[in-house]
C-alpha cells in the first residue's frame, strides 16, 4: 500500500496566501532570498523604491550576488554605491534558509546633497529675485543716469566684494555717454571699449555694426582696476546694437565661481541692454517732443490746435501776446468761446470742413482779447490724422491782420483827405482872388481917407481892420497850401520859433474851440536848424492839438524853446488830466489812442516820433495823473 506525505498546518496558523498578501502589503522595500542570496520574491514597495530612483531591480539582485548571507538568526548591512553616486543601504536578516532584504538610502549622503541643492536653489532664487527687482527698477527710471545707478545697485547685490565698471555708449558713434565704477580704476582704462570675444559670440553681436576706432575685440578680458587678478565682462547688446559693457573683476583672495558669475552677468547684461535701448529711445522721443513743443510755442506765427471735441489743446505765445489771454485761461475751452459772437456762425462750417480732412486757407475772423476787445486774424487750417487716417484734430496757423486792416482803412481815409486837399487848394485859389481884391481896395480906400482932410477916424479904423483881416486870410491860405503840399524831404535852414508860431497859427481854431490859453516862452538865441519845415510844423500841430484835447475849458498850453548844448529843445506842456502809467509806454504805438471814437486814429504820435527821429532827434514824454503832460522835442542844431 502506497503512503502519501502531506504538510500538516498547525491549527490556528495563517495560510501561505496570507503570508504572501502580508509581504506584498509592506510599505518598506523588501525582498526574500534563499541562503545563497538568490532573490525569490520582491514586494511592490521595493519596485517603487527602485523606480523612483531610476534604478532597476536587477541592480539590487546583482549587488546581492556579491554579498555574504548572515548567520542564522543574525543580520547585517551592506552599502551599494550606484553609478550616479547614490549610496544604497541593504539590511539582510536570516531565518533558517530564508534571508529577508530591506532597502533604504543613506540619509546622511542624501542630506549633504540636499543641502548643496538647497543652497544652489536659494542662490538661484536670490539671483532671480535681484534680476526681477532690477527689471522693475530700470522700467521706472526717468533717464540714463538713473538707469546706471539702478544697475550698479543690482550688480553690488548680485556680486558682493567685486569691483565693476558700467559703461554706456552711443550705439551709432560708440562715444561714452555714462560711466559708473565701483573700485579704483586705472588711469585711462575706461576707453576705448574692449569686448571679450567669447561674450560677443554669445550675444550674437554683428561686428559690422561696431564703430571703428571706438570698440575693439580681445581674446582676454582686460583688467581695469588696481589689485584685480581675474575679470569677466558682458556687452550690452539689444537688437544687434552695442549700448555699452559691464566689466567685473575679482580682487586677490576672493573665492568665487567665475563661470557661474559670467552666466549671471550675461543674463543681467541682456536685461540691462534692453533697458538702455528703451531709455535712449525715450530720451530721443522726449527731445523731439520738447523740440516740437518749443517750435510751436516760440514760433513767430499764431498757432492754434483743437481736438475732435473742438477744445483748444495748443495756444502758443504769439496768440497769448496778441490776445492777452494766458494758456491756463484758454486750454480746454471750446474754440467758439474765443471768437466774437458775430463770427461763430462763420466759424462752424470751417471747423466742420477741417474735421472732414479739408484744408481751409485765408479764413479771417475776430478773436476776443482779455480786455474785451477784438483782434482780426487770418488762419490756414490743416487736419491732423491718426495712423488709420482718421481726423484727430485741427491745427490753424495764422497771422495778425489787425494792423493791415487798419492800414487799409487809413489808406482809404488818406485818399479822402487827399481829395479834400485838392478841393481845398481849389477853394483857397478861389478865396485868394476876391480876398486880394478886397485887400487892394481896402488899402486904396485907407490911403485916400488918410489924404482927405476931415475924414472920419472911425472909418479909417474899420478900413485898417478890413486890410489886416484880408492879409491874415491870405497869409493863412498861403501857409495852408504850403503845409498841405507834399514835403520835398530836402532839409533847409529854418528858425525854430517861426516853425512853432506857424503851428500855433494852424491850431487857432482848435485852441478857440477848446477854450484854452496858449503861452509862449521862446528863447531868442536858438540857432537855425537843418530840417524839413512842413514836417516839423506837422509835429507841433499834432502836439498842440493833443494838448488842447487833453484839457477842460480854461486849461493852458505852455510852449517853450531853448538851446541845451548842441540841441534845440521844444517843450509842449499842458495842464490836463495826464496819462495813466499803463498807457504811457504805448502812446507811440501805431493805432494806439485813448481818445473817443472819431477823435483820433492813434497814428499822430507815431508819425511825429518818426519825423523827429528822421531829423536825428528824440521825442519823449513825461506825465503824472492830475498834473498834466509834457512832450519834449530835441533836435540837433546846425552849428557851423
Automatic annotation (TrEMBL):
The keyword Repeat does not apply. Residues 426-639 form the Histidine kinase domain. SUPFAM superfamilies: ATPase domain of HSP90 chaperone/DNA topoisomerase II/histidine kinase, GAF domain-like, Homodimeric domain of signal transducing histidine kinase, PYP-like sensor domain (PAS domain). The keyword Phosphoprotein applies. SMART domains: GAF, HATPase_c, HisKA, PAS. Pfam families: HATPase_c, HisKA, PAS. Its EC number is 2.7.13.3. PROSITE patterns: HIS_KIN, PAC, PAS. Residues 288-358 form the PAS domain. One of its GO terms (molecular function) is phosphorelay sensor kinase activity. It catalyses: ATP + protein L-histidine = ADP + protein N-phospho-L-histidine. It comes from the Bacteria. Residues 361-413 form the PAC domain. Keywords: ATP-binding, Kinase, Nucleotide-binding, Phosphoprotein, Transferase, Two-component regulatory system. Gene3D superfamilies: 1.10.287.130, 3.30.450.40, Histidine kinase-like ATPase, C-terminal domain (3.30.565.10), PAS domain (3.30.450.20). One of its GO terms (biological process) is regulation of DNA-templated transcription. This is histidine kinase. It comes from Corallococcus llansteffanensis.
Amino acid at each position: 500500500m502506497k503512503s502519501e506525505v502531506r504538510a500538516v498546518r498547525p491549527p490556528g496558523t495563517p495560510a501561505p496566501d496570507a503570508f504572501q498578501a502580508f509581504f506584498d502589503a509592506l510599505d518598506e522595500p523588501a525582498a526574500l532570498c534563499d541562503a545563497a542570496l538568490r532573490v525569490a520574491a520582491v514586494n511592490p514597495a521595493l519596485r517603487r523604491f527602485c523606480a523612483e530612483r531610476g534604478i532597476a531591480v536587477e541592480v539590487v539582485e546583482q549587488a546581492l550576488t556579491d554579498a555574504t548571507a548572515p548567520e542564522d538568526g543574525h543580520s547585517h548591512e551592506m552599502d551599494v554605491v550606484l553609478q550616479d553616486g547614490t549610496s544604497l543601504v541593504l539590511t539582510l536578516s536570516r531565518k533558517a534558509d530564508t534571508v529577508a532584504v530591506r532597502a533604504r538610502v543613506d540619509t546622511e549622503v542624501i542630506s549633504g546633497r540636499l543641502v548643496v541643492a538647497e543652497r544652489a536653489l536659494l542662490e538661484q532664487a536670490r539671483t532671480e529675485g535681484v534680476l526681477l527687482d532690477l527689471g522693475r527698477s530700470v522700467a521706472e527710471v526717468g533717464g540714463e543716469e538713473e538707469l546706471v545707478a539702478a544697475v550698479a545697485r543690482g550688480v553690488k547685490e548680485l556680486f558682493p566684494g567685486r569691483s565693476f565698471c558700467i559703461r554706456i555708449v552711443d550705439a551709432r558713434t560708440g562715444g561714452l555717454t555714462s560711466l559708473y565704477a565701483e573700485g579704483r580704476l586705472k588711469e585711462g582704462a575706461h576707453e576705448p571699449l574692449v569686448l571679450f570675444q567669447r561674450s560677443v559670440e554669445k550675444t550674437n553681436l554683428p561686428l559690422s555694426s561696431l564703430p571703428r576706432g571706438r570698440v575693439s575685440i580681445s581674446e582676454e578680458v582686460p583688467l581695469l582696476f588696481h589689485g584685480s587678478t581675474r575679470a569677466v565682462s558682458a556687452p550690452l547688446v539689444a537688437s544687434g546694437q552695442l549700448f555699452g559693457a559691464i566689466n567685473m573683476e575679482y580682487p586677490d583672495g576672493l573665492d568665487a565661481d567665475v563661470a557661474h558669475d559670467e552666466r549671471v552677468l550675461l543674463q543681467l547684461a541682456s536685461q540691462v541692454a534692453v533697458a538702455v535701448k528703451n531709455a535712449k529711445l525715450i530720451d530721443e522721443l522726449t527731445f523731439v517732443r520738447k523740440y516740437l513743443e518749443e517750435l510751436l510755442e516760440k514760433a513767430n506765427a499764431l498757432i492754434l490746435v483743437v481736438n475732435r471735441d473742438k477744445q483748444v489743446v495748443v495756444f502758443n505765445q504769439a496768440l497769448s501776446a496778441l490776445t492777452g489771454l494766458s494758456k491756463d485761461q484758454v486750454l480746454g475751452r471750446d474754440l467758439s468761446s474765443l471768437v466774437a459772437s458775430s463770427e461763430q456762425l462763420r466759424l462752424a462750417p470751417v471747423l466742420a470742413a477741417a474735421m472732414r480732412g479739408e484744408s481751409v486757407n485765408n479764413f479771417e475772423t475776430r478773436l476776443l482779447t482779455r480786455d474785451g476787445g477784438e483782434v482780426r486774424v487770418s488762419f490756414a487750417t490743416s487736419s491732423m490724422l491718426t495712423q488709420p487716417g482718421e481726423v484727430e484734430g485741427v491745427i490753424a496757423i495764422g497771422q495778425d491782420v489787425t494792423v493791415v486792416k487798419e492800414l487799409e482803412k487809413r489808406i482809404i481815409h488818406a485818399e479822402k483827405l487827399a481829395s479834400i486837399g485838392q478841393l481845398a487848394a481849389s477853394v483857397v485859389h478861389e478865396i485868394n482872388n476876391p480876398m486880394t481884391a478886397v485887400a487892394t481896395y481896402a488899402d486904396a480906400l485907407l490911403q485916400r481917407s488918410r489924404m482927405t482932410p476931415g475924414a472920419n477916424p472911425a472909418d479909417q479904423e474899420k478900413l485898417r481892420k478890413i486890410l489886416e483881416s484880408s492879409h491874415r486870410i491870405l497869409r493863412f491860405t498861403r501857409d495852408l497850401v504850403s503845409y498841405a503840399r507834399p514835403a520835398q524831404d530836402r532839409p533847409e535852414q529854418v528858425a525854430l520859433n517861426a516853425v512853432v508860431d506857424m503851428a500855433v497859427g494852424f491850431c487857432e481854431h482848435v485852441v478857440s474851440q477848446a477854450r484854452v490859453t496858449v503861452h509862449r516862452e521862446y528863447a531868442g538865441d536858438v540857432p537855425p536848424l537843418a530840417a524839413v519845415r512842413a514836417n516839423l510844423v506837422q509835429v507841433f500841430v499834432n502836439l498842440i492839438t493833443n494838448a488842447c484835447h487833453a484839457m477842460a475849458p480854461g486849461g493852458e498850453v505852455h510852449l517853450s524853446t531853448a538851446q541845451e548844448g548842441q540841441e534845440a529843445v521844444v517843450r509842449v506842456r499842458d495842464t490836463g488830466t495826464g496819462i495813466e502809467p499803463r498807457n504811457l509806454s504805448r502812446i507811440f504805438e501805431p493805432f494806439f489812442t485813448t481818445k473817443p471814437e472819431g477823435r483820433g486814429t492813434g497814428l499822430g504820435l507815431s508819425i511825429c516820433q518818426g519825423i523827429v527821429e528822421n531829423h536825428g532827434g528824440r521825442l519823449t514824454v513825461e506825465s503824472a495823473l492830475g498834473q498834466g503832460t509834457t512832450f519834449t522835442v530835441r533836435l540837433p542844431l546846425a552849428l557851423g
